[in-house]
Amino acid sequence: MTTHQGTGFGIDIGGSGIKGAPVDLAAGRFTADRVRIPTPQPSTPEAVAEVVREVLAAFAWDGPFGCTFPAVVQHGVVRTAANVDDSWIGADAAGLFTAQAGKAAVVVNDADAAGVAEVEFGAARGRRGLVLVTTLGTGIGSALIHDGMLVPNTELGHLELDGHDAETRAADSAREREDLTWDEWAARLSRYYRHVEDLLWPDLIVVGGGVSKKADRWLPLVRTRTPIVPAELRNDAGIIGAALLADRA
To answer: Which of 89, 71, 63, 94 shows the shortest CA–CA distance to 15?
Structure first.
């Protein structure tokens, strides 16, 4: 597939799989079924870069592309490694992927990519002001977007709350680990979101992550002063957001 006007390409790098697809940048949807390749173990920079190249090759994509990464990413350089190999810390991911693929790569935090997609095409479409997008999973990912502009690498899942790293108490993994009821978990989420509200005063909160599929069971129990809604793009958000950010770059 050669590049053409209005189409971008996004890749979502996760702990278990690396997924990619071409994206219609006007409609915010894939133009072909995504390809998924298991994340190599160990997930070293060189091994991951090779899989990124394979995903692009599956579509014969020959233009710039965007990549999500589950870490703080400053100007293409990885600064943390919570769920990936420690050898990533300090790695120039954008430079590595560009060299391996022979095409310009834009690398961004995974929650930031998902947040941009939700604001452009999903649950926050058409909303002005400050939008907070959170992903509830192994940890709590966050994206902060003001009038369409991303404030990158917010890491609001690591706020200290009642003496704990917030995500160790309120992420979906905490619910599963401690076998919390929906009510018990919602109480913790309410405490977390109220703390964030006192710091940032968002106009809308969007909640993503796999557990957002069951939002009807727990989201009505979460108490916030800000309107709070489930994400709409689900697992496609990272790929769509990465393609969008690469196009803007």
So the answer is: 71
Q: Where are the alpha helices (H) located in the chain, listed in sequence order?
A: 45-58, 93-101, 110-121, 166-170, 172-177, 182-200, 215-218, 237-248
Tell me the backbone φ, ψ of residue 65, rounded to 5 degrees. Answer: -150, 160
Domain boundaries, the chain: 7-110+236-248, 123-232
- The reported pTM is 0.94
Tell me the C-alpha distance between 140 and 222, whole Å.
Answer: 16
Q: Residues near 191 by Cβ (< 8 Å), separated by ≥ 6?
A: 161, 162, 170
At residue 173, φ and ψ (nearest 5 deg) are -65, -35
Is residue 164 over pLDDT 80? yes
The matching CATH number, chosen from 3.30.420.40, 3.40.640.10, 3.30.930.10, 3.40.50.2300, for 7-110+236-248 is 3.30.420.40
Q: What percent of the chain has pLDDT over 70?
A: 98
The CB-side HSE value for 59 (13 A sphere, CA atoms) comes to 30
- For 123-232, give the CATH class: alpha beta
- Do residues 138 and 173 make contact, with C-beta atoms less than 8 angstroms apart? yes
DSSP code of residue 39: P
